[in-house]
Hints:
Number of strands: 15
Radius of gyration: 25 Å
Strand order of the largest sheet: 3-11-10-9-6-4-5
Distance between the termini: 44 Å
Helix content: 25-40%
Number of helices: 17
Shape: globular
Largest sheet: 7 strands, mixed
Strand content: 5-15%
Amino acid sequence: MGKGQRAMTTFTTQVVDAPQEPEKLAASDLFQTVPATSATLIGSAASAAPALPANPAPISAEPLPHEKPHEIKDIPAFTMVTTYLSFLLIVVLAHVEDFFGKLFMPQKYIQLRVQNGYAPMVTDFESLWHRHVYARLRDCFNRPIGSVAGGHVNLLDRVTRDYNRTFQFTGKLQNVLNLASYNYLGFAQSEGPCADKVEEAMREHGITQASTRAEAGCSKLLVETEEMVARFVGSESALIVSMGYATNALNMPALVSKGCLIISDELNHSSLVSGARLSGATIRVFRHNNTRDLEKQLRRSIAQGQPRTHRPWKKILVVVEGLYSMEGEFCNLPKILEMRRKYKFYLYVDEAHSIGALGKRGRGICDHFGVDPREVDVLMGTFTKSFGAAGGYIAGSRELIDHLRTHSYSATYAEAMSVPVLAQVSSSMRMIMGEDREHALEGQQRLDQLAINSRYFASGLRRLGFMTLGDDGSPVVPLLLFNPAKMSAFSRECLKRNIAVVVVSFPATPIITSRVRFCISASHTRADLDHALEQVSEIGDLLLLKLNKNKITEEKAS
Length: 558
């Protein structure tokens, strides 16, 4: 997955009181494979709209004000230099260790040598990062838990005596404040109204359908839940998939194929990358959240057509995410929709992290910006983050969903979603929509609490002098750590203070921007967040992470 500079973006929410009927592209065109004519290029064959507007304004190479990478510009030179030197030193020492290790301990490197005529699975250089860096930090990742991933979670205590190669459990539990799990609305619970609905559903319908959707896996509960999802996101119809990753990876190949073009944000999730590659379509990437670069790619692609033949593209599909979880940033959906009306491409929005977490009604990025969801051709989301369940959905026009039900591998080969998961999805979604009479207000209270907690925690970190990424209101708050050694030190110091966090570094992020990613939940109380801010402040002083402290002091003085 391509990685590039992260951009801190701020958008103004525009609420549309009475949205007009959006301009619709022919839904059937999205999944037909008949080449479009040169007059239409892409989009609706009926409208025959030109692909390029007459007398288009020149595109400036400069990014828009909200698309400038502020965090790169604001990093002190000393921090940048020492971070690069740290990675350079790691690579040099790793090569030195490998050189002498192969001489004096050849058995240790047997998996990197040719054996019985078989080449090694990976080369020594390809596995260098895993063997010399990740292996030493394994105690910071994959920590097993012994409870539901709620606001607090029980970690299984473990120790290592061989530098994180193996672990032994001590039999003890450590209760920690959970700032690491995607539990935005706090529905990850083993008791409560949703858990009761799940138990009732299992008693009535059993555990699983034991079949694919296309054969015997279609149940009344599945159909009702799909109808509810369609109403929730504001689309005509929806298709539920039992696995979130497969929702993207297995449905995108049913929408585009050879002769089509996918233009993807460079920081899109791995599932989107997999789906794009499986489709056989041509893939082009635009700079993260940079609509100027997106427009440049669109105009170049439409003007030049397909490689070698220069024939018009059958379809052009632009793929973005509603909320980028590694950056905590929103896509510039209003601007992208404006470009969609202009260039007549199809739009695919991944709302894995934004659905249920953004907007006054929890309807995702469309609700956040006040735009009509019917203007988006394909809406995708998952049930793992805000609904305390599993799997995902694709929502759109009825023709689109009917096509996917018969052509997508997720519907014809994958198992249907199990009964407990369906019950969890329907009960939590009904609560958010206010359709659960016994808990009519609880869903909206969770949405409001999440918005309050997210803004409170992010502003608290900024006041303390930390460098953070993300847009205001994002439930994911990344804090920049930079130095790779500080990444592991931060995680271990948090664990000492009974706080669970997620740290991320290269190659999942650019080499300069290692970070800790705080995941805020509606289940967190103000006392939880105050305690976390207090402890994180102490760790920041210990590791010299408050790089904006002097700037904030100067602003207060002025």
